[in-house]
Structures
1.
Amino acid sequence: MSTMRAAVLTTPKCFDVREVPLPPIGPEDVLVRVQRTGICGTDIHIFNGHYAVDRLPLIPGHEFCGTIAERGANVRHLAVGTRVVVDINIGCGTCFWCRRNEVLNCAEVTQVGIGRDGAFADYVAVPARLAIPVEADIADEVLVLTEPVACVVRAARKARATFGQSVFIFGAGPIGNLHVQMMRLVGAAPIIVADLSAERCRMALEAGADAAVSDPALVKQTVLGMTGGRGADLVIESVGNRKLYEQAFDLTRRGGHVAFFGITSPGETVPIDILRTVLEEGSLKGSVAGMGEDVHDALTLLSHGRFRTDDFTKASYPLERIQEAFATLSERPQHLKTQIAIAT
Ligand SMILES: NC(=O)c1ccc[n+]([C@@H]2O[C@H](COP(=O)([O-])OP(=O)(O)OC[C@H]3O[C@@H](n4cnc5c(N)ncnc54)[C@H](O)[C@@H]3O)[C@@H](O)[C@H]2O)c1
Ligand SMILES: [Zn+2]
Ligand SMILES: [Zn+2]
């Protein structure tokens, strides 16, 4: 066998599902037989031509699970047939940042399905050191959530979220919903979320939010009302809107923390009151993707059923219908995740 099926994004908004050569593997790589791949917000940006356009033609897909089909000559620790998920962030592995698990700061970083071909295909090649064996009895539909869950694990870690903290989250999209669940796990209280969509608010409440606000005019009074008039200990922006970043500082208590998470266009800025930040001892920190220990932790939490995944597992399309899966996303807000079933 020398070819496989792959969904190649040839130009923005246009997938071509066709036979392509199997990806070659180096001595330190493995070839993964893909079982299932989730569609992520980043894939939607790539599909629409707003991100990684210079990479086209590209096989996207980075939220996947599968089994080892072939090992590179130097790979000893993974047997053929082992079920795996993959840390998609490929750094050099040896630089200052890679050693600190800040792989996205590595000068050589690339990501599977974003900077190089990914998993909307029968097979994907990845460095063996980034393939994580899955021992738990966990459904593929849940396992493919490892990557997005790793993102909220990292966000919680970087924000040093802990029990008893009040949290406000802008956005109850797929990732906002996972932030809500992650904040439940760390014991945050209360957890307040805002989303323009009443449906997304309803799902956030089901996921464990204490309050969900769909009317922007009610956000401030709700946050203040539920935090003793102080504002939240932690505010997470999970929309990617400059105006919301600006508002985030007003919804944070004195000495609180703003988590920079939602992705804006390059170069967007917010004014920050320097003196106020100094005197109040305010803080902010970014967090990007999930890598290293974040991925392991996400897998552990999912393996032990710590995330409610019903709203993430109901929409599934075969690879041949990937174009339709992408084209209909905006009509299906009730599906927090759409998945592509690759191996049948
Ligand atoms: N930093 C990271 O590691 C990381 C990882 C994954 C995603 N992201 C980013 O996080 C954000 C959230 O991801 P997602 O997949 O849930 O995105 P999404 O676009 O699917 O969902 C965003 C949600 O925000 C809501 N929204 C839009 N405008 C709003 C407003 N003014 N007020 C309140 N809610 C509003 C929408 O109704 C939607 O439900 C995106 O910007 C994404 O790019 C960051
Ligand atoms: Zn993703
Ligand atoms: Zn590096």
2.
Amino acid sequence: MSDLDTKTFIDKYAITRKGTDSLKWDALKERFGSDELLPLWVADADFSTDQVVKDALVKRVDEGAYGYSIRSADYVASYQGWQDRHEGTQVKAEWLIFSTGVVQSLYDLIACFTNEADGIMIQTPVYYPFFNSIKDQKRRLVEAPLLNDDEDYTMDLVKMEELFKAKNIQLFILCSPHNPIGRVWTKDELQAVLRLCQTYNVRLLSDEIHSDLVVHNHTFVSALTVAKEVGFRDLIVCNSPSKTFNFAGLLHSHIWIPDEALRTQFQKWAKQHRQTEISVLGQVAAKTAYQSSDEWHQAFLQVIEENYLFIKSTLQEAFPEITISPLQGTYLAWLNIESVLAGESVKEFIQEKAKLAIDYGEWFSPAYKHYIRINLATTPDIIKQALKQFILAAKQ
Ligand SMILES: Cc1ncc(COP(=O)(O)O)c(C=O)c1O
């Protein structure tokens, strides 16, 4: 339990975002065709970041000069401290490369480490920019669908091995924890995956942006930890403080490349294609949060878990046929709502009847067209209102 209880957290940090040029709140007309929807889609939070982070940003803003910045020596130390405290991951300063975001990093890493028509594997359903980053760059998309046993999702290692053998795959992009199904992969699962990659010479890119968003009885294990244990060197990890502390708009994320030859290859590529500088405010915010926002983070996780449990119990009581995948990590709930549809499409039900904006299952895989993804990083009041609208729509 955090010393900051959820009520105090919500009172202190819940904010009105409508009218702040928020993608989630202010782009509803553009993205969904109507301003009249309650938004539970794109993955950022309806809470301000920790007060200490805001204070550090205000202090830095007050200095007035925002010229080019260097990577500060204590940045990496504060990040290493956080990783060590929260997940037992040991990272070395020299492995770190800054980026403006994880999606940008995916595009860059694919461009650097693969060629047109190379095979890249992903596990579907998965965060849709994975598809785009492969297809936009004319790489060959290879899907290894997750096994779904009544919303209990596991990796299909047999299928993956078959595909590794048959499809000439250069890169496997792992989502860990997995968006949208909310799994936190266990050490055993990760070991099995890394061993497969090792056997078939497949480079592994692990997107760990949700690594800090793990509910209390689960433990996140980084691919960096497992790679060290199994002696696997062909690994790149992307992560970021942006989901953890709600500052995606500060455009600051990490790429970790432990292997020196791979790192040099990427640096050479970046010199020709990607001359980005460091986000001054991103670095200030992240350094402060990694040093001091443990309590804020703990309370944030509690709010997410309480919202999840509330949705689950309310919907299970009203509509027992709706299935909700167990939430181990991320702040995203994944629901199959086929049973409440009365002949209409999910989109008609969600937008026209329930007046909600959510992420549609088909964005993550065409096989999941009856699913929706709900963003839990909001206030219980908004979750209650959304459920009210959903239940009313289902009873129409
Ligand atoms: C798995 C995953 N990767 C990357 C991102 C986006 O990262 P960024 O905003 O740093 O590009 C998200 C956002 O939802 C995500 O879920």
3.
Amino acid sequence: MSEHTTLVTGGTGFVGGYLVPKLDRTILTTRDVERAKKKAGADGDEFLEWSDDLKIDPTTKIESVVNLMGESIAEGRWTDEKKKRIRSSRIDSTRTLVDQILKLEQRPKVMVSASAVGIYGDPGEVIVDETYPPADNFLGDVCVDWENEALRLAEHGVRVVLIRIGIVLGRGGGAMEKMLPLFKMGLGGRLGSGKQWVPWIHVDDLAGMILWAIENDSVSGPVNASAPNPVRNSEMTQAIAKAVGRFAILPAPKFALRIALGEFANSLFSSQRVVPGVANEKGYSFQHSTIESALDEIVDK
Ligand SMILES: NC(=O)c1ccc[n+]([C@@H]2O[C@H](COP(=O)([O-])OP(=O)(O)OC[C@H]3O[C@@H](n4cnc5c(N)ncnc54)[C@H](OP(=O)(O)O)[C@@H]3O)[C@@H](O)[C@H]2O)c1
């Protein structure tokens, strides 16, 4: 059987570090090929320099595409410039990618394209599956436009899966890399009232869901990538404190985080009781369905 080649954008990042080693053969796009080659984990078989005028050889044979690139939303203050980069590194870049894929002599069968639970805004206590409408705010608009660029491929017969990713928990990156040192020093604490629901997913399950989405022809459209048991921020705080064997007694007030982080702080206080409706219906089997199980894998005892 011939090798299955996957083109991965943003494969040098946190999620890509877990996904790429599980794929058969990969072509990774990156803004810095030399840095990507040196980076442990980004073990692509072939690298393509990413730029706004990326050209992919039309004879390239690609069976699937995973689109993960995007300027981090959690690093740095949300200035107007930063917000422009958040938008264009997802929307303009996905447009460039799709334009190139459409020029291939042989199109891939499937593209799994990242989106985020930020699309849902702040629905409070409501249980949110993939049918919930998008929010009318900055992140909601970014996600809708990002998904629409990816969906242009669906108009040309390519199966498009839009994975609406929750807060990804795992070793070596994402939210845990920021939170664990604080909790280990006894400085962790709930955010505000702590009542807000947090849609989390273990990075092994996110990588697992992406592979599952590539392999399952019946999966298309929006798919919530979050664990079946979202928790309130206060529950997550207590679970992390317990896992590291420390108390978490210092709540972080909203005004302080707004001063430190700018508009991004609002997303930390949004309540998103997201459930993986499509993954449950189509039979994805989670490795970590409870926060305790996820933390057990992540935190060294
Ligand atoms: N981690 C989470 O909790 C989370 C939650 C919701 C959604 N997501 C989404 O899932 C995807 C992967 O997340 P991740 O945590 O793996 O992200 P990450 O670690 O920040 O990696 C993203 C990759 O995108 C590329 N990139 C960054 N800025 C770019 C820009 N301005 N233009 C083009 N490429 C750029 C980088 O690759 P090069 O430097 O090699 O070019 C980087 O390695 C992202 O789209 C993110 O929005 C993640």
4.
Amino acid sequence: MIELYELCGANPAHLFSPFCWRVRMALVHKGLSFRSNPTCFTDKELIAFSGQGKVPVIRDGDTVVYDSLAIFAYLDSQYPEQPLLGDAVASARAKAIDALCTSVLRGGLLKMVLLRVLQASDPKDHAYFRSTREAFFSDTLENVDNPEQGQALLEAAWPVLAAVLKTQPYFDGDEPAGADYLVFGYFMWAYTLGIAPWQDNAPVNDWFNRLLNIYEAQRGTVVRTA
Ligand SMILES: N[C@@H](CCC(=O)N[C@@H](CS)C(=O)NCC(=O)O)C(=O)O
């Protein structure tokens, strides 16, 4: 059985990493059984076998793969049924989609979730999370976190996503696949931390709810910040 190492909060069932959600969706998409290994930010010893310090990581027999896009490509190579990316150029194309959805979504969402991640994290992670992120931003978490500014930044993202979703139900066409999960992971970052800043945008909200329903029908209700 595939082992999935994924980020968790103080509650091991509270999963909020966008990249880990991509992989969880990919495994459900392929109908592969997997065992979750909830991993706190500072549980580095749990993933030391992968030779790096970030999740998601999967272990499939003797094979270890980390990075959500690399895991998509691996799953397609080993389990070609229900492709995530599809043809030979698709890994390169997925990088472009990843970069585009990151550029329209990450900055705004970050300003909305940063303090929520801190609050949801295990207390043993607090000092680590604060010091690594404050070093990255060269600013305090409290100064970077700004939900109103985040919401304003995201207003530019919804029409871009809606333009596609007005003409087709999923980014990958009639059925969801890899491109949908790349974007959905970012949405789950917000949703699992208790916010849904796209709710006023019908095509985007409908797309999100369709995917969430597919997931929850198979795996049960997602744990969220109250
Ligand atoms: N490019 C990687 C990014 C993975 C990543 O940044 N994971 C975060 C969780 S969202 C992490 O493990 N952070 C550990 C840390 O900050 O120490 C992917 O797509 O999987």
